[in-house]
Amino acid sequence: MWNARLIRRTLCFSKKFDRHCASIALMFVYRALCHKQTNMRETAAMAAGITDHWWSLEELMDAALAEPPGEKPEPKPLTIPRPEGTVRALPGDRGWLRAVDGGKGAPSPAAPSPGPVAPLVQVPTSPVQLDLFGIDIEPEPKK
């Protein structure tokens, strides 16, 4: 609920992906620098040692607007790294199929052995009542 652009069926949707990313980044920066958690006495940035005071919204906007625009990132193709061990590529470069130990020809793992059995506890046949000080008191016989 911090950012209405993340909620569907509202009028606050993002038409451009760049502005959507900027809105989310601004929300996270605001939460780190300006928002005080209810169970903490400091902001997340103060706890991490990034700043020594709570930022006001004006201070955050002045710092955000004074920052020069950065370089546009270059898109890189997404590649899934080849994992270690015995693997086979899936069709269409969709990833890797890893071979694991076990299967039809491999022996099944041994079942764990049961641990030692605890001895049975002897329950007294006559009822015994304990008082607050730990002294055994025999109950009075029923009449």
Biggest sheet architecture = 2 strands, antiparallel
Stretches with pLDDT under 50, minimum 5 residues: none
Number of helical segments with 4 or more residues:
3
Write down the secondary-structure element order: HHHEEEE
Assembly type of the shown chains?
A: single chain
Strand fraction:
5-15%
What percent of residues adopt helix (DSSP H or I)?
10-25%
The whole-angstrom Rg is 33 Å
Strand order of the biggest β-sheet: 1-2
**Strand tally:** 4
First CA to last CA: what distance?
71 Å
Mean pLDDT: 75
How would you describe the shape? flat
Helical/strand content category = alpha+beta
Outline the structure in words.
It is a single chain. By secondary structure, the protein is an alpha+beta fold. It has a domain of 63 residues. Helix content is 22%, strand content 7%. The chain contains 3 helices and 4 strands; from the N terminus they run αααββββ. The strands form 2 sheets. A two-stranded antiparallel sheet has the order 1-2. A two-stranded antiparallel sheet has the order 3-4. The radius of gyration is 33 Å and the shape is flat.
Give the topology, please.
Blueprint: H1 17-33, H2 44-48, H3 57-66, E1 87-89, E2 96-98, E3 129-130, E4 136-137
Antiparallel strand pairs: 1-2, 3-4
